[in-house]
């Protein structure tokens, strides 16, 4: 009886998904003999409304999911409620083990690539077709929160559980991916894992000589975390078309969904991020003895450049242009010593790439003119990354939209101002993102919070979207 029930559910769900799937390439034909056979087998006409009832079987185990989010947050190098989880640290390795165990417990076959991108696969009935993928990251910047990225990894594993519990059977295989180092914290560049998956030869070359703030090389750090083949970076690259779709679930990290009491955000585009490193060098000296006209203060050059960043961003005239100086270091860092060296890291983004690029040009001009006027040397001006924006795929947007409608959840289309691994997955696969509200839009700080009900809604929309894409 149990066996018959689950086969029945399988058919009901599969047929429901196929018949309602906006990305279904094969148009439904009422005379289709397969449909007739399915109707005979199930004993029900397959287009009647009671098939909608099967959607209520998409139930999220919210209690377990919350417990997992809390457990994962305990792998942290800063006190709760903050979370700090840096690439290849002991806590990062623990969180990787935790994710792999959960993937295995969900029946996924797990593999890791040379830099530790983790893939958990649910093999579909047509494994030769390009799979559908989903996932996010679990690394966390210093003193951040426990939802950024984590919701898209634990939520993706739970989405698989949801589909398994509802007896759904995928046609295309489904991959859950935990990406290595979405955050730029340790090696100064974000989305290491997804950038490499997208085939960035430039990054692969750069990583051969990259060191962290303690002069530990990328290769050494990766090997210490157990990735002994890390030098074979080109093995990480994916061919374009390796996936038929990639969908990332994430907290919004902005206030719009909460303010508008909307359950789901469907991302149409991801803004273009860029980051720049700047070093100034002056002669330093005694804070009392060197008179003001004789100084060439590297610290003041940095301060002036930070203000110039703000000025150029505001001059763009668009609310979509943003700029931040999140790192500003002075050497030697003594109250009674004029800074002889300064180091800034500048982050600037815009949904409009040209406008963002013109801000970058102006920042460079300011750095040159400040160094000339203050008699300090501009010893480094390096654009670390200058990425284009990415557009979501229309068919994935439609799949997420109809999933939200069928689940009777309010949704809106929106852009992502934060970057995500999805920005780089878009280079090898059609891409889409699903946002959920978070408290006051807080993110990258310990107060980051999302309710388990919102998370569960996001997981359901993800599960249904994956099911539709898997059958397409
Ligand atoms: C991602 O963490 C970002 O900075 O947008
Ligand atoms: Mn983040
Ligand atoms: Mn994130």
From TrEMBL:
GO molecular function: hydrolase activity, acting on carbon-nitrogen (but not peptide) bonds, in linear amidines; manganese ion binding; ureidoglycolate hydrolase activity
Entry cofactors: Mn(2+)
Superkingdom: Eukaryota
GO terms under biological process: allantoin catabolic process; purine nucleobase catabolic process; ureide catabolic process
Any one Pfam family match given in the protein's UniProt record, by short name: Peptidase_M20
Keywords, comma-separated and alphabetical: Hydrolase, Manganese, Metal-binding, Purine metabolism, Signal
Endpoints of the signal sequence: 1-26
GO cellular component, one term: endoplasmic reticulum
Subunit structure: Homodimer.
PANTHER family noted in UniProt: ALLANTOATE DEIMINASE-RELATED
Protein name (database record): Peptidase M20 dimerisation domain-containing protein
Protein's organism: Coffea canephora (Robusta coffee)
